[in-house]
Amino acid sequence: MKTLFCLWVGAAVLWPVLTRAGDSLDEVMPVRGFSIPAPRPAEVDRFVKFIDTGLAPRGVNTLVLLVEYNFQFQTHPELRDRNALSQEDVKKLAAACRKDHIHLIPQIDLLGHQSAGKSLGSLLAHYPEFDETPWVKMPERYTWPNADGLYCKSYCPLHPKVHEVVFAVMDELCDVFETDAFHAGMDEVFYIGESKCPRCGGRDKAELFAGEVTAIHDHLREKGRRMWMWSDRLLDGKANGLGEWEASANGTARAIDLVPKDIMLCDWHYERAVPTAPYFAMKGFHVVSCPWKLPEVGVWQVQEMAQWRKRSPAELKDRFEGVMQTVWTGAGSFLDREYNGKPGATNSWNCFTAMYGEIKKLQPDAK
Ligand SMILES: [Zn+2]
After folding, report:
1. How far apart are CA 288 and CA 230, in angstroms?
2. Least crowded by CB within 10 Å, which of 76, 183, 277, 307?
3. Residues linked to residue 66 through DSSP beta bridges, in sequence order
4. In angstroms, how far is CA 171 from the centroid of its own chain?
5. How far is CA 263 from CA 53, 120, 197, 241, 287, in A?
6. pLDDT (0 to 100) of residue 342
7. How far is the CA of 65 from the centre of ligand 1 (A)?
8. Band (344; pLDDT cuts 50, 70, 90)
9. Are 316 and 285 spatial neighbours (Cβ–Cβ below 8 Å)?
């Protein structure tokens, strides 16, 4: 045990040296990501410590924080959560990431995910006129499946005022995070092009989805920023057997040929490592594979990403960017229950450590 402990300590000490030592890790796995809901104000200091001692020493170089309306927006103060991050809080996070050479990317879910369970999100609570399905009432008790097919609400991408609001909060967040990239969500959009929507009814759903992606992309690009998003709506869940969650079963998949190729696609698959990253790369997109709780899925995604990078011609190789661990509990709860929880439990942290262990093996000078 003692020997094992010494090896473990040695590896822990050596790892930051190795990651700083060279570009070799960046060569084999350029994006080494971690995605989690942003901490609440009271959790910021703990989270900064986690960035310094949990993420950076293991080689993470990209942190996506799902902020939503957990920020004291000046452009639209009405949208702020009651307990929201201040500018000073965000500066602490940005400073920690800068010090640790981590690319910090804020996220707001655009288009879909405008409600969760029985709760309406802030955007539609304050701007009910943006609702794609105003006739679907929020339930007192949420169950799935339900008669309305309500997973989450969407905003109407053709409402003439919606971009004025969402682009303002998106720009403000990017400014305060001092970042050149923004993650727009865009996953699991179930309501789109609804026949009863006076603007969208009768339109092609793939074109509607692509139109919204392109509008967000173009706005970000004008300001020198890159768009990141989840990839599921660009996959055909019926043809490929991937279903309606990690792929689309509502006609949006053809949007893959209609949206700009310089978007970074985050390709989440939690139960299995399916060969979707090559599909995106062959189409011209840059892609990162994303696991959740199952360590074997994270490890497979690393191994496959590395193989594709190794075997592809130069043009294709660079599109296989890497991997990003996802966390779907609040930051405080994650720190309490997963980061400081039982080793071996099925959770994001244990998936992360398995995945990053596999990344470490890829480094040519790793011992
Ligand atoms: Zn509409």
Report:
1. 10
2. 307
3. 37, 107
4. 18
5. 31, 28, 28, 25, 9
6. 81
7. 28
8. confident
9. no
The answer to whether 305 touches 28, Cβ cutoff 8 Å, is no
User: What is each CA distance from 311 to 24, 304, 316, in whole angstroms?
Assistant: 17, 10, 9
Give the whole-angstrom CA distance, residue 353 versus residue 144: 32
Q: Please check the confidence at residue 257 and state whether its pLDDT lies above 50.
A: yes
3-state secondary structure of 302: helix
d(CA 121, ligand 1 centre) in Å: 17
Taking the centre of ligand 1 as the mean of its atom positions, its distance from the CA of residue 312, in whole angstroms, is 41
Amino acid at 144: W
User: CA of 121: how far to CAs of 128, 130, 161, 225, 284, in Å?
Assistant: 10, 12, 17, 26, 34
Give the largest Cα separation in the chain, rounded.
70
Both tokens of residue 61?
Answer: 């170089």
By CB atoms closer than 10 A (0-12, 13-18, 19+), residue 284 is: middle
- In angstroms, what is the span from residue 227 Cα to ligand 1's centroid? 23
Going from the Cα of 191 to the center of ligand 1, the distance in angstroms, rounded, reads: 9
| pLDDT tens figures, 28-43 | 999 999 999 999 999 9
Task: Report residue 16 as tokens.
Answer: 């930051």
Cα-Cα end-to-end distance for the chain: 20
The answer to whether 123 and 116 are in contact (CB under 8 A) is no
Residue identified by tokens 């996959």 is 235
What are 185's two structure tokens?
Answer: 């969500």
Q: How many Å lie between the centroid of ligand 1 and the Cα of residue 172?
A: 25
| Amino acid at position 165, single letter | V
- For residues 253 and 206, is the Cβ–Cβ distance under 8 A? yes
Q: Could you tell me the two tokens for 194?
A: 């609804």
Burial category of 50 from C-beta neighbours within 10 Å (exposed 0-12, middle 13-18, buried 19 and up)? buried
pTM of the model: 0.93
Q: Which residue type is seen at 364?
A: P
The token pair that represents 323 in the structure block? 């991997």
Which pLDDT belongs to residue 24? 84
Q: How far apart are CA 51 and CA 47, in angstroms?
A: 6
